[in-house]
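User: Let's play a game. I give you a shape written as C-alpha cells, and you guess the letters that built it. Ready? Here's round one.
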C-alpha cells in the first residue's frame, strides 16, 4: 500500500520526547523562583501528526508551564526544515503544569536558558519522530462531561471583605483564590466548562496511535515546591494507556483548555479530596481517563477525514502604566529587598511594582497568533494564552464539535472577557502576564470565528 503524499490515504503518527529537567533547573509558575530537587514523574512533549493528500497537521503538547512565542516560532522553523510541514499548520502548546522547567519569564523567575535549548530540541525531535511513525489510520471525535473537578476560582465576597488590588491600590469586585477567607465567600463569579473533548486515532489494523484530549482545568498543585511532575496531565496519560492496554507507541495527550478562571482549590468544600501529595492529581487524571475510555465504544470513526488549518495574527494594544505609575513603582522597588518577600499583600505590591517598570518597556502593540484546525468532523482552536471558561463555552456553542487548546503558539498571559476585566481580580492585575487591552478577548474570538468560517 502506497503512503506517498500525493495519495488521498489518511495517515497518523505519534511520538514523545523526554523533557524532564535536571535537578537544579529553574521552575516557574509561582511568584517566586524554585529549583528542581526531586523528580516524581518524567515530563514529555508529545506530538501527533496527521496527513492526507492535501494537508499535514501537527499538534504538540509539552509538560511545561508556558513558552514564549519566540521559542515556539523557532521550533516551527526547525520542524519545517526537517519535515516540510508549513508553520501555519503546526500547533505547539503547554499543559501548564507548575512543576516543570522554566521556559518563560514569570514574575521573579526568568527562563532557564539551558532548559529552553533542551525543550526546543526535544519538541522538534518528537514531531520528526511522529512523522516517521505515520501509518494508515482512522480517527474519531468524542466528548464527555466531567464537572466534578472544575471550580471557578473567582468569587464575589460578602459585604465587609475588601479585595485589594496591588497595582492601583483600589478595590476589586471579585477575589481570586480567597485563601484564609472561605467564610467570606458569597458565590462564584462565573460558570465553568465541564466538557472533556478528544480525538482518538487508531491504525487501520486496530492498534492505538493516540488520544488527544482537552479539559479546562488549571494544574492540581498537590506537591511540594521543587518537585518535578506533569500533574494531572501526566496521570491522565498513564491511566488511559493502562485502560486501553495500548502498546508503548501509544501517546495519550492531555491539553489545557480555557482554564484561566478555573482550578480545583475548592474553598467551599475543602475536604472533598485527600490531602496526600499527588493524590488529587491522580484522581483527576484517572477520572478523565475513565471518561474517555467509556466514551470510546460509541465513537463514529472516519477513514478519510478532511484536514485543514488557518492561521492569523491579531494586533492588539498593550495596557501600559502611565508615567506617574512608573515613577511610583520605581520608588517602591528602590526600597524593596526582593529576597525577603512572601505571599502577602505587602509583597504583592512590590512584585507588581516591578512588573509596571518592566511592562513600561514593552511595545505599545503586539501581535497575537490565532489558529484553527479542521480534523474531519472536529474543529480545534488554538488560543495564545490563558482564557476564561466563558470563552471556550461560547466557541463550543457556535462551533459544535470543537475544543480550544490554550497556551498555544504564544503566551500573551491572561485574556479575560471585558466584563471580567472590569471586575478586577488577580487575572486582570496589569503585569507582563496580563497586559492586553480590555477588549482583547472579543477581538481574538472574532478572528477565530472568521477562521472557522473559512474552514467550513
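Assistant: Ready! My guess for every position:
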Amino acid at each position: 500500500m502506497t503512503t506517498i503524499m500525493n495519495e488521498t490515504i489518511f495517515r497518523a503518527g505519534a511520538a514523545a520526547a523526554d523533557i524532564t529537567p535536571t535537578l537544579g533547573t529553574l521552575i516557574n509558575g509561582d511568584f517566586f523562583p524554585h529549583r528542581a530537587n526531586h523528580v516524581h514523574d518524567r515530563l514529555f512533549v508529545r506530538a501527533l501528526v496527521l496527513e492526507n493528500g492535501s494537508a499535514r497537521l501537527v499538534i504538540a503538547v509539552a509538560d511545561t508551564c508556558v513558552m514564549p512565542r519566540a521559542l515556539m516560532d523557532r521550533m516551527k522553523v526547525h520542524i519545517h526544515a526537517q519535515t516540510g510541514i508549513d508553520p501555519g499548520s503546526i500547533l505547539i502548546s503547554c499543559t501548564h503544569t507548575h512543576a516543570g522547567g522554566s521556559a518563560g519569564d514569570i514574575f521573579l523567575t526568568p527562563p532557564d536558558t539551558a532548559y529552553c535549548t533542551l525543550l526546543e530540541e526535544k519538541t522538534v525531535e518528537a514531531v520528526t519522530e511522529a512523522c516517521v511513525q505515520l501509518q494508515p489510520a482512522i480517527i474519531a471525535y468524542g466528548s464527555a462531561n466531567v464537572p466534578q473537578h472544575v471550580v471557578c476560582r473567582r468569587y464575589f465576597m460578602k459585604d465587609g471583605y475588601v479585595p485589594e488590588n496591588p497595582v492601583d491600590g483600589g478595590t476589586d469586585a471579585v477575589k481570586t483564590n480567597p485563601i484564609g477567607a472561605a467564610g467570606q465567600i458569597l458565590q462564584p463569579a462565573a460558570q465553568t466548562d465541564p466538557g472533556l473533548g478528544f480525538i482518538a486515532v487508531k491504525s487501520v489494523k486496530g492498534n492505538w496511535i493516540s488520544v488527544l484530549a482537552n479539559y479546562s482545568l488549571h494544574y492540581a498543585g498537590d506537591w511540594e515546591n521543587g518537585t518535578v511532575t506533569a500533574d494531572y496531565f501526566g496521570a491522565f496519560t498513564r491511566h488511559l494507556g493502562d485502560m486501553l492496554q495500548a502498546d508503548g507507541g501509544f501517546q495519550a495527550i492531555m491539553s489545557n483548555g480555557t482554564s484561566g478562571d478555573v482550578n480545583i482549590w475548592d474553598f467551599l468544600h475543602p475536604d472533598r479530596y485527600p490531602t496526600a501529595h499527588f493524590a488529587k492529581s491522580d484522581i483527576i487524571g484517572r477520572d478523565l481517563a475513565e471518561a474517555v475510555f467509556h466514551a470510546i465504544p460509541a465513537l463514529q470513526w472516519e477513514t478519510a477525514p478532511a484536514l485543514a488549518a488557518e492561521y492569523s495574527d491579531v494586533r492588539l494594544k498593550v495596557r501600559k502604566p502611565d508615567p506617574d505609575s512608573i515613577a511610583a513603582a520605581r520608588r517602591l522597588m528602590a526600597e524593596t529587598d526582593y529576597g525577603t518577600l512572601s505571599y502577602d499583600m505587602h509583597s504583592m505590591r512590590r512584585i507588581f511594582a516591578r512588573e509596571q517598570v518592566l511592562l513600561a518597556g514593552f511595545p505599545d502593540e503586539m501581535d497575537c497568533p490565532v489558529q484553527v484546525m479542521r480534523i474531519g468532523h472536529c474543529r480545534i482552536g488554538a488560543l495564545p494564552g490563558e482564557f476564561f471558561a466563558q470563552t471556550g463555552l461560547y466557541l463550543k456553542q457556535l462551533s459544535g464539535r470543537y475544543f480550544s487548546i490554550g497556551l498555544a503558539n504564544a503566551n500573551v498571559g491572561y485574556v479575560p472577557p471585558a466584563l471580567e476585566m472590569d471586575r478586577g481580580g488577580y487575572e486582570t492585575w496589569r503585569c507582563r502576564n496580563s497586559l492586553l487591552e480590555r477588549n482583547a478577548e472579543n477581538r481574538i474570538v472574532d478572528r477565530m470565528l472568521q477562521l472557522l468560517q473559512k474552514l467550513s
